[in-house]
Amino acid sequence: MGIAARNPRELDVALAQRAGAGDRAAQRELFQAQKHGVHHALFRILGSNRELEDLLQDSFVAIFRALPSFRGDSSLGRWCQTIAMRTAYATIAKRRPAVLELVDDHLADPTPDAQRVMRAKDAVRRLYGALDRIEAKQRIAYALFAIDGRTLAEVAELTDSSVLAVKTRVWRARRELMRRARKDEVLSEYLTELGGDS
Amino acid sequence: MSNTERPPVEPLSDVAWTRVERGVWSRLDETDVVRERHSPRRWWLAAPLAAAAIFAVVLIVHTPARPNRDEGPTRVVSEASSSSVSLGDAHIALEPHSAIVMDSHAGAPNVLVEHGAAWFAVEPRGSRPPFVVIAGDMRVRVIGTRFRVARDAERIEVVVDHGIVEVGYHGELVRVTNGQHWSSDAPSVVAMAEPEPAPAPVTPEPAPVTPAPIVPAPAPIVHSPAHVPSVAHPVTPPAPATHSPAADRDAARYAELSRREASSPDAAMAGYLALSKGSGRWAQVALYAAGRLAADRGEPRATTFLEIYLRRFPNGANADDARQLLSRLKGTP
């Protein structure tokens, strides 16, 4: 908890060591510092906060258990997100696809702007519905690259994969999504807008 | 993403974060217990450890002041009566049933308030590293002052007797000075403090404290989240004006309503609306709070409240927030 003049990587390692040794104050500090980054990455994978609380808990428990292995080769934030991605993969790989919810298309506010926002929300919901039916590694790579806008190299680091493997997963995910979008005009239009050629 | 915006990442509510955090500590504690149960070489350590703990308790009870610390964290717990301890030249008076963890590294003292309340008397730090107090998500940075920090689960309060402290909470910094009060219920609002009961004497006196060095603190039990601070729409306090008893009364009333939002949202709403009818500077804060609370609860009247707010206070302290919230409710960017 000292406030010595050290570089961020050294501070990361010191914090990880204290938290890994069971210092609850350090664990709380680490949790507060990393919770938003981990939540952001996981939200991109799942597309909503439903089911996210359990996944956040699992991720942070995995992070705290793995802390003794943190050597500061990457930032603590990136390292925590990598663990969270592994946890997300384990969760998604074994779950059944969610049933797409039916929504009321009636718009309370018929202004063009309101309609545009509603259409965008609907498109995102359809996108994640389709992602639910795609292989977990492809889904994670696509969500981080095409939806969150991270680079292939970043996604590769977060998922412990090579850039080539990530590129292939994104391509396969997009091909599968486009196939599903043939019967879904809204999704098709949204995928075209997303673009993001790898 | 080429032609379209990225879908927004919806924030998780503070209540949900509290559940997640509590679940994590609980599962980590379970793991520790299981590990201890399966450890084949712990049993013979039990007797010497118990003896050492008893010796430590006796030593602390008979030691008037604690020496400066730089040897790792120490947890101090007060029981039915108040206790006082020293950390360097700072004196800490724990109120009954409170627990803190003291640590000091390279001359930088810091204290974690686990639960309960404590008064801190900190000598001017000069060029030395600041004295830091942490409670939940809140961090107080001290230059030299006397102040009280109270924590009940994730609800935190700071009262400054004299001097100035800097309170950091969820990325925002607020300065709290002589006689002022800050609460995590309304983190952007600094109000005049209500009179507090006389604190324990700050001179270090022998008092029954139970140390448990380097023992991870138990996970806090969240009784009930008193209030969900609106991170997206914090309430900006009105511009400072001449103090009057009425303004102080309104400020206290506002703080009370804000505390009751989670447990009695209807009562809080009624109170905000009543307060908003006044002409004082807290009327506008209360009217915005009514709009924000209605929006949080998905009530259609949120739009009406916010529109009235903007008509009455087009340049009010929360006018920008009200416009943003209104746009969001109407589904416009």
Structure, described:
The complex is a heterodimer of chains A (198) and B (333). Chain A has 198 residues and is mostly helical. Chain A folds into two domains: 8-94, Orthogonal Bundle (Rna Polymerase Sigma Factor, Chain: A), CATH 1.10.1740.10; 112-194, Orthogonal Bundle (Arc Repressor Mutant, subunit A), CATH 1.10.10.10. Chain A has helices spanning 8-20, 24-46, 52-66, 76-94, 112-131, 136-147, 152-158, 163-181, 185-194. Chain A is elongated, with a radius of gyration of 19 Å. By secondary structure, chain B is of the alpha+beta class. Chain B folds into two domains: 17-33 and 42-211, Jelly Rolls; 245-330. Chain B has seven helices and 14 strands. Chain B has helices at residues 14-38, 43-61, 245-260, 265-276, 281-296, 301-312, 319-330, and strands at residues 74-78, 83-87, 90-94, 99-105, 108-122, 131-135, 138-142, 145-152, 155-162, 164-169, 172-177, 180-183, 190-192, 209-211. In chain B, strands 1, 2, 3, 4, 5, 6, 7, 8, 9, 10, 11, 12, 13 and 14 form a 14-stranded mixed β-sheet that branches. Chain B is globular and about 55 Å long. Chain B starts with 13 loop residues before the first helix and ends with a helix. Residues 36-43, 55-70 and 196-243 of chain B have low confidence and may be disordered. The interface between A and B is large, with 46 and 44 residues.
